[in-house]
Amino acid sequence: MTPESHSPTGTDDPTLGPPPGCPAHGLGPGGLHRLYGPEAEDLGALYEKLRAEHGAVAPALLHDDVPIWVVLGHGENLHMLSSPAQYAHDSRLWTAVQDGTVKPDNPLMPLFAWQPICVYAEGDEHLRLRGAVTGAISTIEFRSLRRHINRATQHLVNQFCELGTADLVSQFAEHLPMAVLCEILGMPEDYNERLVQAARDMLKGTETAIASNEYVMSVLTRVTTRRRAKPEDDFTSHLINHPAGLTDDEVAQHLRLVLLAAYEATANLIANVLRMVLTDPRFRAQLNGGQMTVPQAVEQSLWDEPPFSAVLGYFAKQDTELGGRRIRKGDGLLFAMAPGNVDPRVRPDLTANMMGNRSHLAFGGGPHECPGQDIGRAIADVGVDALLMRVPDAELDCEEHELRWRSSISSRHLVELPVRFAPKPPQDVMQRPAVNAVPRQRPNWQVTTEQAEPVAPAPQPVAPQPASTPEPARRLGAWQRFLRWWRGY
Ligand code: HEM
Asked: Which stretches are tagged as biased composition: Pro residues (predicted)?
């Protein structure tokens, strides 16, 4: 990166502040802020400091004081993502990699090390690899997807509903996407606690991450071999049989990409939405009056707390300019969707609700825009809705300020979301979700999948029913029949 000793705030003036590199103040060489260490404990606050000091594109330092541009502006992020002639995802172009500033043991290496998968590819190779993934995604039938999500939710809720307490992160949000993904990929028998733990372990980058990666790859290689020999109607078989002609290794690597990207992002999304629903008075107020639906709550969460907070990175292919900054060929840039989504130029009032506006950066943009976003949305929409149908009386079982997050440059996970509720009997997983609680007053806030402004006669709320009692035979209205068909249960 251009080592501009620019510091509009004068932080590189020794008379005005701590000397450059002073670790006590978190500032590194050139008076630049570090995106790691003590100063980065609250990355959201640090991004706002950078925005105030430098504007939409700010210079900063990654681990080992590797220089990086942080793209904070909404429009600047979109411009970067949509300009493949100027920026690529290929870290081999990064001057810091070429000149050895990035050491092989840099802890962020797994986030940017080049691999032969669509994320890092460009041009025709990107089209070939991404075409196979999107082709396989296009064969997913959304009605049966919703049915899988509902059944997996019922199964998970059955494991804790009699207890009256649960941790919705480890017992729900982290399991649901993996259960659904295993079903989609055609390996439902491989969904188990070990796979969930291995995926978590890899993403946390613990010392057992390499062994966990080997375990995940062995599962994915096995399913690739199985489906190559005997294709079925599932994502893996369609990926293998796509005219792009992926090799077995390419298939397994793309299954890994889909499994991990989808798992982590969707688990974060579900946890974030549930936290908002349980704690945010804005949500309660709107949900109270039935003014907000689960999909709208999900979309608001994608603005306020995108499941990935930043992607490392994009790399300049030529000298260029972004947000008034001179970017040199080989500079690295952080696609920072979390600060991009709260850019005051697009959101002057952060408390305003963003209903109907999907122009957030949570799924990226340009040629690499997430091809699985509707699947991620569906898992969160249907899963949260079905969970709240089963435990509508769930309340946070700790003080809100006691909730803890684990943060890294790329994401921010809620560690736990403890809830309490009246114990309830398990329910047949093949049934649609119902409130089968001991009779109890329903809370006056409740999320719904119903239309806020119904385009058809408003559906009646689902009446509480005991698990063992069959649903009373009654004629359903056209709108309810449609909703059942649409949800797949
Ligand atoms: C809430 C859930 C999800 C979020 C927030 C999310 C977010 C993202 C983002 C931000 C990118 C683009 C990164 C960039 O510009 O470099 C991306 C790429 C990608 N996502 Fe997702 N994702 C989610 C779910 C999924 C699911 C369910 C799938 C698959 C079924 C998936 C598959 C992919 C793939 C294959 C790419 C790479 C595309 C390319 O490079 O051309 N994602 N995702």
From this structure: 456-469
